[in-house]
Amino acid sequence: NAGVMQNPRHLVRRRGQEARLRCSPMKGHSHVYWYRQLPEEGLKFMVYLQKENIIDESGMPKERFSAEFPKEGPSILRIQQVVRGDSAAYFCASSRTGGLNTGELFFGEGSRLTVL
Amino acid sequence: QQQVKQSPQSLIVQKGGISIINCAYENTAFDYFPWYQQFPGKGPALLIAIRPDVSEKKEGRFTISFNKSAKQFSLHIMDSQPGDSATYFCAASSGTNAGKSTFGDGTTLTVKP
Fold it and tell me: Do the chains contact at A102 and B98, CB–CB below 8 Å?
C-alpha cells in the first residue's frame, strides 16, 4: 500500500493524558500536512512540515500541541494534557512538491481521538 | 478572511439526477480550487480541481464551474448514482503554500435509487 499511512486509527485517552498520532507520507513525498476535522465540520489546517522543518504552524493551538517530521521515521502530532475538546479526527496529508505545486493533497484515513 | 462557504449542507437527489454543490470564497489570492469526496470513516480523496484561468473543467460525470468575478465555484455531478453518496468538500489554496487548503464545511449527498 503506497498511500498515506496513519496510526492509530482510533485512540481513546482520558483527560490529562498524552496522545501521539503518527503519519507516514506516500513514497516520494516529503511534504506533510496535518488537518483536524471536528464532527459535522470541514477540515481545518494545523501544520505543514518538511523533513526536520516546520514550515507553517499557523493553525496549531499555541499550547499542548506540537508536531515533528524527523529525518527518519514518520511525522508525529503530539497532544499533551488532552481535553474533551480535542476529540476529533486528525488527518495527515502529503504532497510531492509542497508550495510550488498543484496543491493536490493525498490524505490518510485519519486518526480518531476520543477524550473521555 | 480565509473562509470558504459551502452550500447546501445536505442534498438528496434521485438516481440519474444532477447534484449541484456551491462554494464561495473571499480571498482573491486563492488560485487552486479542488473538490474532495469523503466516505464515512475514510480520508478525503481528490475528485477534481480547477484553476481560475478556465471557467469550466469536466472529468467524466463531474464538472467544476468557476466564476472568478463572483468568487464562486460549483460542482455538478451528472447522472448521480447511489455510489456517489458521500460528503463533498470544496477547498481553496494559493500557489505559494498550495498544500495549506481552506475547506468548506461539507455537503452530505444522498442519491436515492
Answer: yes
Size of interface A-B (CB pairs under 8 A): 77
Q: Cβ–Cβ contacts within 10 Å for residue A4, how many? A: 22
Grid cell digits, residue A3: 498511500
Phi-psi region for residue A100, left (φ > 0), alpha (ψ -120 to 50) or beta?
Answer: beta
Report DSSP state, residue B83.
G
Which residues in chain B touch residue A91, judged by CB atoms under 8 angstroms apart?
A: 43-44
The confidence band for A42, taking pLDDT boundaries of 50, 70 and 90, is confident
pLDDT, one tens digit per residue, over B55-106 is 999 999 999 999 999 999 999 999 999 999 999 999 998 876 778 899 999 9
CA separation for the pair A74, B88 (Å, rounded): 28
For A70, other C-beta atoms within 10 Å of its C-beta total 11
Q: Which chain A residues are Cβ-neighbours of B36 within 8 angstroms?
A: 107
Cell of A110: 485519519
Give the distance from residue A112's alpha carbon to the nearest chain B alpha carbon, in angstroms: 9
Which residues of chain B lie closer than 8 angstroms to A56, CB-CB?
97, 100
DSSP reduced 3-state for B82: helix
